């Protein structure tokens, strides 16, 4: 067994031990196919007011510009599918990924452990950990690494576990054995396109971010445009519609990460509780949650938009 194989196996075994669903590896190089797609998406203003998407165009497409001398992109998936969802079906809804502790902290910690393991067991390896807060095209790298294919809703999909998982990367200056992409299994299915409440999936594999409920309820700091009144399907933070209707998510299994378990009060809150939420309750229920991104003022704006 050569060193590349040995090191690759070591990393994948440790990733599994740390609780990651799967691990795939790609060569760190310019993403040729994604470049024109990203450019077109930006030129069509599909990023709305997410100005940060225009920054670091080169870095988004070339990991060697993010991590000098990098040779490998190690892509990792971490399941967040919950075993229970909100009890009151008439209550405003929160995307499942935001039920527990903010994933940035949970995953960053695991990635640091993985990088430390690599350095302890392989030697001097330099690298950086990324959890969707840097200019890295997570889904493109995960697909390139054979972890799934990008579905018509533009999320990564796998036949075994669907799409309810986070994607993260370690970009390192160590050459490893590289995985190959898998095939697309969406077929003629258009469930996600048909179900999108705001018609944000403008064509298969293209999502207009500026029409997405997640964009309106999390990213947009201004008032939500009134023409979208009545189209939010009761989502107050994020939206899971395109994933909920996807046939591959029949295979989703509950996660086993205690930190992703929701605050005990979250699932019990009624429609009335949400409509009367106070800042104290917000701080208590979402103490370590990704929902803090929208702030109390943002969440109450969203709830009011659903109600009016």
From TrEMBL:
Pfam family, one: Fer4_16
An annotated Gene Ontology molecular function: cobalamin binding
One Gene Ontology biological process: tRNA queuosine(34) biosynthetic process
Positions annotated to bind cob(II)alamin: 60, 132, 156, 167, 214, 239-240
Top-rank taxon: Bacteria
Known catalytic reactions: epoxyqueuosine(34) in tRNA + AH2 = queuosine(34) in tRNA + A + H2O
Cofactors, names only: cob(II)alamin; [4Fe-4S] cluster
UniProt cofactor note: Binds 2 [4Fe-4S] clusters per monomer.
Occurrences of domain 4Fe-4S ferredoxin-type (ranges): 174-206
Compartments in which it is found: Cytoplasm
Active-site feature positions: 132 (proton donor)
Pathway named in the protein's UniProt entry: tRNA modification; tRNA-queuosine biosynthesis
E.C. code: 1.17.99.6
Keyword Cytoplasm tagged: yes
Leading EC class: oxidoreductase
PROSITE patterns: 4FE4S_FER_1, 4FE4S_FER_2
Function recorded in the entry: Catalyzes the conversion of epoxyqueuosine (oQ) to queuosine (Q), which is a hypermodified base found in the wobble positions of tRNA(Asp), tRNA(Asn), tRNA(His) and tRNA(Tyr).
Subunit annotation: Monomer.
The protein, known as: Epoxyqueuosine reductase
Species: Pontimicrobium aquaticum
Taxonomic lineage from the root: Bacteria, Pseudomonadati, Bacteroidota, Flavobacteriia, Flavobacteriales
């Amino acid at each position: 067994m050569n060193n590349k194989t040995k090191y690759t196996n070591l990393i994948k075994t440790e990733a599994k031990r740390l609780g990651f669903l799967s691990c795939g590896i790609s060569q760190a190089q310019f993403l040729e196919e994604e470049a024109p797609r990203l450019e077109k998406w930006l030129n069509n203003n599909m990023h709305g007011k997410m100005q940060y998407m225009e920054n670091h165009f080169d870095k988004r497409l070339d990991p060697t510009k993010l991590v000098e001398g990098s040779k490998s992109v190690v892509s990792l998936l971490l399941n967040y599918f919950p075993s229970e969802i909100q009890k009151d079906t008439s209550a405003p809804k929160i995307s499942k990924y935001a039920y527990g502790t903010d994933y940035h902290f949970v995953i960053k910690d695991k990635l640091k452990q993985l990088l430390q393991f690599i350095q302890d067991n392989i030697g001097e390896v330099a690298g950086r950990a990324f959890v969707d807060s840097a200019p890295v095209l997570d889904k493109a790298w995960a697909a390139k690494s054979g972890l799934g294919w990008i579905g018509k809703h533009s999320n990564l999909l796998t036949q075994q576990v669907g799409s309810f998982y986070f994607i993260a990367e370690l970009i390192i200056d160590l050459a490893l054995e590289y995985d190959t992409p898998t095939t697309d299994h969406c077929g003629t299915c258009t469930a996600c396109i048909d179900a999108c409440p705001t018609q944000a999936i403008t064509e298969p594999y293209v999502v207009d971010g500026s029409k997405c409920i997640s964009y309106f309820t999390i990213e947009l700091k201004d008032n939500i445009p009134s023409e979208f009144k009545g189209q939010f399907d009761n989502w107050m933070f994020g939206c899971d519609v395109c994933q909920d209707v996807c046939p591959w998510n029949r295979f989703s299994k509950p996660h086993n990460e205690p930190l992703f378990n929701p605050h005990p009060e979250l699932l019990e809150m009624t429609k009335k509780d949400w409509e009367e939420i106070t800042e104290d309750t917000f701080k208590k229920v979402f103490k370590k949650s990704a929902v803090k991104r929208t702030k109390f003022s943002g969440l109450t704006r969203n709830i009011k938009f659903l109600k009016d």
